[in-house]
Design brief:
It is a single chain. By secondary structure, the protein is α+β, with helices and mostly antiparallel strands. It folds into two domains: about 200 residues, no CATH class; about 160 residues, Heat Shock Protein 90. Helices cover about 65% and strands about 10% of the residues. It has 13 helices and seven strands. The chain has a five-stranded mixed sheet with strand order 3-4-5-7-6, covered by helices on one side. A hairpin with a 4-residue loop joins strand 1 and strand 2. The protein is rod-shaped, with a radius of gyration of 43 Å. The N terminus and C terminus are likely disordered.
Length: about 450
């Protein structure tokens, strides 16, 4: 009966039709009471008074019926605490139930007590829920034992049918609310766990998105550095050389302006292609917008137009390379030539490209050497960002290769050497980062100026 009433209550409350119940059992009076608990207590009080008025209680000789009405009111009042203090409400309700049984008992008190059992199992602490379950189990065993003894003694009214009725009444009033409450409690526990897992997945997705954004920003910054530094450095070097002359030279001025124009147009074109790919949403790892190693003659020509003596030596037969290897090799050459234009004295640079045998996995070795001034490595260029060698090392290490850069033993030559595997390996975050950090520590002093 309690379960039926509870089901009707849930259905009506879900529709907002239970005595004007509002959606969402909101707390009131600072959270000490709930609107739903107040309304549900009023329902039980009305039902208990009605059952008392109809005489739905056991008439005990010498007992005052008004006491049973007081127990109904007390049990209904305890239902106000079914959400905020279900364990205490159940303990006090048990005392009220004992008093009611001594003077009656009455039906309304038992109905309300079943709801307190349910509330303790659903909203109470685990100790309260276990206490309700244990007490109900012990009480059920006691009822069954006493009923069986009375049936065996022949003193049970109704015989076996009376025993089944007593057991069924106990199950309906006491056991069903406890079992239902535990079921709801476990369901809510699983729902909370799934909610926490979903929130954790959302947080992990946000972290992955933030990491992807950070990686993309790093890549874009590296690409912008590679594109701008080379061409703008050539423009700055040529402009400075032209401005430093004291006598006008129309032919030299024309050549300088041609170099400035070519580098500006090439830089803008590469930036336009890179931005176009970013807007199209292509995978950044493909890097199809960057030139390839076999197009390095453009870099060599630009350096020569800027007044550099450039020698290129190739070893082995040029072969098609993976896009990542091709792009990394080109960018390393580009950045090395940019640094050579700033620091080489005399203005000379030697480039070496060693290809692996065709048809076999191997390593593409890129070397760039330029002489240093007599005083050793030059001071840092204020126009430089200090990220050139860092970017070159990152490109090589992420491909599973190696990178070194620094002056020779005699301090006369600056040498850059990159080893890029032609059979790409999966980048390993830990080893790559470790190698990068080791290289940064080993060459930190010289990288600052490059």
């Amino acid at each position: 009966m309690v379960a039926v009433i509870r089901g009707i209550r849930s259905a009506l409350a879900g529709r907002g039709g239970l005595l004007g119940a509002v959606h969402g059992d909101r707390a009131l009076l600072g959270g000490r009471l709930y609107i739903g608990s107040v309304l549900w207590a009023l329902v039980h009080l009305s039902l208990g008074v009605l059952l008392w008025a109809l005489g739905a209680y056991f008439h005990r000789d010498g007992a005052v019926p008004g006491v049973l009405l007081a127990t109904v009111a007390a049990m209904s009042a305890l239902m106000l605490l079914r959400r905020t203090a279900p364990g205490a409400a159940l303990a006090a309700g048990t005392a009220v139930l004992v008093v009611d049984a001594a003077f009656g008992p009455s039906s309304g008190v038992y109905l309300a007590y079943g709801d307190l059992l349910y509330a303790a199992c659903v909203w109470g602490r685990r100790r309260s829920a276990l206490g309700a379950l244990t007490g109900t189990a012990v009480g059920g065993a006691a009822v069954l034992a006493v009923g069986a003894w009375a049936y065996a003694a022949g003193s049970l009214i109704g015989g076996a049918l009376g025993l089944l009725q007593v057991v069924g009444l106990y199950v309906m009033v006491f056991a069903m609310p406890v079992v239902t409450g535990w079921s709801v409690r476990e369901h809510r526990g699983r729902a909370d766990l799934e909610r926490e897992r979903a929130e954790e997945r959302v947080r992990m997705a946000e972290l992955d998105r933030a990491r992807a954004v950070a990686e993309e920003r790093t890549r874009v910054a590296r690409e912008l550095h590679d594109v701008i530094a080379n061409h703008m450095s050539a423009v700055a070097v040529q402009s400075t050389a032209a401005l430093s002359r004291t006598t006008p030279d129309p032919d030299l001025t024309r050549r300088v302006l041609e170099v400035v124009r070519d580098n500006s147009v090439q830089g803008l074109e590469e930036m336009r292609r890179m931005i176009g790919v970013l807007r199209a949403g292509e995978r950044p790892a493909e890097e199809r917008v960057t030139p390839r190693v076999d197009e390095a003659d453009l870099l060599v020509r630009t350096a020569r137009e800027a007044g550099m003596r450039v020698e290129v030596r190739e070893h082995g037969e040029p072969r098609p390379l993976a896009p990542q290897v091709d792009a990394a090799a080109y960018r390393i050459l580009q950045e090395s030539l940019t640094n050579a234009q700033r620091y080489a004295a005399p203005r000379r640079v030697e480039i070496g490209l060693a290809y692996p045998p065709d048809g076999r996995a191997g390593t593409l070795v890129v070397t760039v050497e330029n002489p240093l001034p007599d005083g050793g490595a030059a001071e840092p260029d204020p126009m430089g960002a200090g990220m050139g060698l860092v970017g070159m090392r990152e490109r090589a290490v992420l491909l599973g290769g190696g990178f070194t850069a620094g002056p020779s033993a005699d301090g006369r030559v600056w040498r850059v050497r990159a080893e890029l595997p032609c059979a790409l390996l999966e980048p390993s975050g830990g080893s790559a980062q470790g190698a990068a950090s080791d290289g940064a520590e080993a060459h930190g002093g010289t990288e600052a100026g490059r």
